[in-house]
Amino acid sequence: MLPVINKRAIELGILVGLALNCEIAPVNVFARKSYFYPDLPKGFQISQYDLPLAVNGYLDINTGGDSKRVRIRRVHLEEDTGKLIHARNASASLVDLNRAGVPLLEIVSEPDMLSVDEVRAYATQLHAILRYLGVNSGDMEKGVIRFEANVSVRAVGTDVLNTRTEIKNLNSFRALTRSVEYEIARHSQIYKAGGSVEQQTLGWNEAKGETVSQRSKELAEDYRYFPEPDLPPLQIEREWVEKIRAELPELPAARKQRLLDAGLNNYDAGVLVAEPTVAAFFDQAVQAGTSAEPNVEPKSIANWLTSQLFGLINDAEIDLESVPVTPSALVELIRIVEGGQINATSGRDVLREMVESGAAPADVIRAHGLQQVSDEAPIAAAVQQVLADNPEQVEQYLAGKDTLSNWFFGQVMRSMRGQSNPQVVRLLLEEALQQLSS
Known about the structure:
The protein is an alpha+beta fold. Helices cover 45% and strands 18% of the residues.
């Protein structure tokens, strides 16, 4: 069959280019790599080179509080190849052609990353953007996104980059960072010994923690690019670009800044924008928090989401999309806790059952009799009973051992099965102890 340009792939490519602040080329051309590909049935790959879809973009990253701009050279479309499986201890390879010919988007950065931390920050930020745009599921284990790192080192005090090597098909952030660290160390050791680095394409052996040579690295000339004769030049009208621009969602960096402006700290904001589903859940919870009185502050929602709900989700080995707790239900629970109807400890127990059963917080509280007691009469009686039952501790307190007040507090809370209002307990206990001291 003759190749056909996939319109939706072009639209998604333009969307990515716009999100990365690129210029969208009005005319771009598909090219044929006249170079043998054993994992493509026709033996060559269709790609873009001289006139790609998008050029001259950038992505701002943050490491250790410092912001840095990484330039994007181009965003171009090509066809994916099959998957070669090299049998161990055998002179044969298998090929899985299932994905051969499927549209693939390649994003090429400039050599602006100067540390492994910057590499990871760039990769995670790019990964998040692609997920926010809905152009990629982000499931790296399935190979739907792969990183290929070009590594070179230079002597201190010079601007000359030495020979580079390329590590292919890295499908996890761990593999990316470990392989780059390994190559930096390998290059440095070779140069310190007076040797030279060979330009080559490498694979990464995760089990051994080392790179393995695959082939000598080709230059662009080796691919012998020429215009694909079966595909005409693609003309992209400005109206089409602007229509796609209107589809851009709020991206992670902008969303994070909005959360910072709302009073969240940098850590919480970063956690909440890392995944689109988490960010959407939080936004819906914030909206629910302002839809009724008393309002629930975004900071309080963030605390319950990151410190409580996330922990329960991890223990249950499910994701946020599968948990039967809605944003409004979480806010309802927070409102109940902050209103003094139950204490924070009981609130965590209620949330655990909500995760397990999907029940409403009020129903869980009612079923287990967890309503917090704020009536002073039963709490005052409990305080007097604890003091009467522990005369030795009361004598020690009156002799100057003030820290026993916390022990008395714990005894009162235990006698009330944790359902008494801690503020009321503290107030009435202090009053009783002052009366004993006078």
